[in-house]
Amino acid sequence: MITAVTSRARRTRNISSTLARLEDIIYERERERLAVDHHAIISVADRNGDIIYVNNKFCELSGFNREELLGRNHRIVKSDAHPEGFYQALWRTISSGAIWQGEICNRAKDGSLYWVESTITPFMDMEGKPYQYVSIRTDITHVKNAEIALSEQKERLRRGQSYANIGTWEWNVKSDELFWSERIPVLFGYAEGQLETNYTNFLNAVHPDDRQSVEAAIQRSLLHRWPYEVEHRVIWPDGTVRWLLEKGAVVTDRNGQAELMVGVVQDIHERKMAEDPLIVARGEAEAANHAKTEFLSNMSHELRTPMNAILGFGQLMALDEQLGDMHKEHIGEIMKAGNHLLTLINQVLDLSRVESGHLHLDTEAVSIPDLVRECVALMYSLAREKNVRINSEELGTQWVQADRTRLKQAILNLLSNAIKYNQPGGSITLYSKEHGRDRIQLFVDDTGIGISPEQRHELFKPFSRIHNQTHQVEGTGIGLSITRTIMQAMDGKIGMQSTPGKGSSFWLELPAHQSSSVVENRSS
Ligand code: ADP
User: 466 C-alpha to center of ligand 1: Å?
Assistant: First the structure.
């Protein structure tokens, strides 16, 4: 009896503690449901899709009251924003027992559309078939509307840029990241999106003659925070040249450091053409000049090979001891004319190379006295032959910034002219001096026939030979024009002064090289 009572009492205690636990669980589930109910839009449908439960939020959002919804098929809120295949795929997923998640656009009672992010969970019976579907959703209409507004805004901007032929860009100075709008590649002659966004591609598209000014404008703007504004040409992949206008500004960070550069690019080609018909003429002249240079360069190459053959065989024939005097004299003439022609061909080739911008320069610190000594040694026999004395003792110790080989070519040309157009028994004096704070001038003075002021403007033109008629001096008339182009390419200058009958003074001017860096260069 006691045992029976004790065990009953224990059972009763167990039952009441189980009940208490169950109450707790029910309480907690109830609170969870309440929380979800307050946050989400919930509906439950039976296996046919007919609504059997909706919460208040569902009613609020759809605009239907509960009575209008219960028992009706879920299609009541279906919109025509999605294709039929979308709903078929959804049903296939949930009727097979899988959970479906995605964004759906529904229609409210008043016809307005709303977007929900939805999770539909099927509940399965003992046979593994769904008997009801619970849908939990969040209203994302505001996000969708913002997305739509943004893409409309983007499209509007794109259309605007396209009509105005304007592109925009943004360059992060610190990370070097570059963004540009779809219109930029089009302005550079590519299809939209075809040109990869990077600074090198931008600079490569800029006309070679304008690259320096574009880069300088960017640097100026970064350095002084000035507005960035530059007009420049671009060369399209098909060779078309177009004018663009760039405008931009530097954006600084909290510490005043340059952080971004932002800007617009606009096609101003038509305006530029209308403004200045000279530009058209210049473009055409440049193209014609380019074609001429190309032609000369090709021709010179073609002529050089047969010319070398003529000279080679001429030299062989001259060695033939059985030749009579007259024939020897004829061969001598052939060799003389041939050598002259070869010099001419080589100079034309050099001129065309220099003029077409194919001049490759390796600038370095060059010692003026060392280089002049080398040149004088090379010209020594010609000077002796013409009985001209070369005096180079007055040279300073200056260093210049130049391409050694090309500077040597320029000095040799001045020196050979000073010898060729000198008087027998005349002299040449070479000396150098500082010009301003950072330039050096090298003078080649002669005591020769001189050049009159009227002849001076002809001097640097290709093929112009001033003393051709009066003096039998060999030459081609190309040397000085090459020398001038070389000097300009090295940021240098050439000039002269002369007194006819007394002599001429030709000078070359170049940037000085600081001696400290010369020491560094030599030790490295
Ligand atoms: P080249 O000497 O082969 O004819 P250049 O271009 O070097 O060609 O010189 C062009 C012309 O300038 C020469 O033909 C000559 O008439 C004149 N000239 C050049 N240097 C001197 C000089 N030092 N004195 C007088 N005339 C000169």
Answer: 7
Nearest C-alpha neighbor of 465 from the set 483, 487, 481: 481
Most confidently modeled range among 168-177, 429-438, 502-511: 502-511
Alpha helices in 72-207 (DSSP H): 84-95, 141-164, 183-187, 199-205
Pseudo-torsion of CA 99, 100, 101, 105, nearest 10°? -150
CA 424 to CA 426: how far, in whole Å?
A: 5
Minimum CA distance residue for ligand 1 atom 25 = 450
Grade residue 176 by pLDDT with cuts at 50, 70 and 90: confident
Global confidence as pTM: 0.48
- Is the four-CA dihedral 286, 289, 290, 291 of positive or negative sign? positive
Asked whether residue 287 carries a pLDDT value surpassing 80, the answer given is no
The response to whether residue 388 sits with its C-beta less than 6 Å from ligand 1 reads no
How far, in Å, from the CA of 386 to the mean position of ligand 1? 16
CB 439 within 8 A of CB 426: no
For residue 467, the CA-to-ligand 1 centroid distance in Å is 8
- Under a CB-based contact definition with an 8 Å cutoff, are residues 134 and 121 in contact? yes
* Distance, CA of 162 to CA of 165 (rounded, Å): 5
Helices 368-385, 404-420: inter-axial angle, 10-degree rounding: 30
Ligand 1 atom 23, closest CA: 418
